[in-house]
Design brief:
The protein has helices at residues 5-14, 21-34, 38-43, 59-64, 73-85, 93-104; strands spanning 2-3, 47-49, 54-56, 67-68. By secondary structure, the protein is mainly alpha-helical. Helix 1 (5-14) crosses helix 6 (93-104). The chain is globular and about 35 Å long.
Length: 107
């Protein structure tokens, strides 16, 4: 699955706060794969404004250089379940684009 910065910010918000030990390990594995590193911050020019609570980055670099992530079947099933658990919540449209990307990657 190809992920952009916004996807990598939204996916942790999709994951549940509580769960079983197995779910905890799946969440940890997913987070490790999508996490934004210091190298990413430098390359994509990611800047966090604590006062405004906002994050900005270079959209051109982001669109031209998405990361490719391979999720296991268990991780995809967990992501799908997590998406279904929040499906009735109100979220911005671009959040649902990330959810749609997850669903489209499930075989």
């Amino acid at each position: 699955m190809e992920l952009n910065i916004k996807d990598r910010i939204y996916i942790p918000q999709i994951l549940p706060v509580k769960g079983s030990f197995m779910e905890f390990n799946l969440k940890k594995s997913i987070s490790k794969k999508i996490g934004i590193t210091e190298k990413d911050k430098e390359f994509y020019e990611i800047v966090t404004n604590q006062e405004l609570g906002s994050v900005t980055w270079n959209p051109e670099k982001d669109m031209n250089n998405p990361i490719k992530v391979e999720f296991t079947d268990d991780e995809l099933a967990f992501l799908k379940k997590s998406c279904e658990n929040i499906s009735e919540q109100e979220m911005p449209d671009d959040f649902w684009v990330t959810v749609e990307k997850i669903y489209n990657s499930i075989p």
